[in-house]
């Protein structure tokens, strides 16, 4: 029985150009379009919003996020055209 | 007597639910899609538990550096 194993490399390929939610160890979240990603989880996000505890605190045109801070990178594959929802 | 390596056990858990405990009091429960040597994990249909707050996520790449414990077939209590 073959199951498809999706490693981090596959995840990276799927996630380029999509809007992602990146959560850091310090609970800060960044929602933006993924422009670049490497094996250290360093990221470049564009049109990025910075949230702390569900509250928007900043907006950036382009940021470089150092990968050691990243807790997870979350992507939505059902591309719904809606405002960033923060529940 | 068969030896089971840790990553071998993880490989067996692919496509099933896993419960992950982090070094701080955070938990994740999701369907394991894949992992790598650094314990970075691809999870789907994830529930994140952080300080009592639950959050649902569709698909995540979880950084392995803070992972403490993985329970195959487990759930967030």
Describe the structure.
The complex is a heterodimer of chains A (87) and B (77). With 87 residues, chain A is mainly β. Chain A has a single domain (8-76), classed as SH3 type barrels. Chain A contains one helix and five strands; from the N terminus they run αβββββ. In chain A, strands 4-3-2-1-5 form a five-stranded antiparallel beta sheet, with no helix packed on it. In chain A, a hairpin with a 5-residue loop joins strand 2 (28-37) and strand 3 (43-52). The longest helix of chain A has 8 residues, at 8-15. Chain A is globular, with a radius of gyration of 13 Å. The N and C termini of chain A lie far apart (39 Å). Mean pLDDT of chain A is 85; it is low at 81-87. With 77 residues, chain B is mainly beta. Chain B has one domain (6-72): SH3 type barrels. Chain B is built from one helix and five strands. Chain B has one helix at 6-12, and strands spanning 17-22, 26-35, 41-50, 53-62, 67-72. A five-stranded antiparallel beta sheet of chain B has the order 4-3-2-1-5, with no helix packed on it. Strand 5 of chain A pairs antiparallel with strand 4 (53-62) of chain B, so a sheet runs across the interface.
Low-confidence segments of chain B: none
Q: Please list the strands of the largest sheet of chain B in the order they lie side by side.
A: 4-3-2-1-5
Give the integer mean of the pLDDT values of chain B. 93
Instruction: Supply the CATH class of chain A.
Output: Mainly Beta
Cα-to-Cα separation, first versus last residue of chain B = 34 Å
CATH topology of chain A: SH3 type barrels
* CATH architecture designation of chain B: Roll
């Amino acid at each position: 029985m073959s199951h498809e194993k999706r490693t981090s490399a596959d995840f990276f390929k799927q996630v380029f150009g999509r809007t992602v939610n990146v959560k850091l160890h310090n609970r800060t979240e960044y929602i933006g379009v993924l422009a670049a990603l490497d094996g250290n989880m360093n990221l470049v996000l564009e049109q990025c919003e910075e949230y702390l505890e569900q509250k928007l605190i900043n907006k950036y045109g382009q940021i470089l996020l150092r990968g050691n801070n990243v807790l997870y990178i979350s992507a939505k594959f059902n591309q719904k055209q809606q405002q960033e929802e923060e529940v | 007597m068969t030896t089971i390596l840790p990553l071998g056990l993880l490989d067996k858990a692919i496509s099933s639910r896993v419960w992950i405990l982090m070094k701080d009091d955070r938990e994740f429960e999701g369907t394991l899609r894949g992992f790598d040597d650094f314990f970075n994990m691809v999870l789907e249909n994830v529930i994140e538990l952080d300080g009592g707050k639950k959050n649902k996520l569709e698909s995540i790449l979880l950084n392995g550096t803070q992972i403490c414990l993985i329970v195959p077939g487990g759930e967030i209590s």
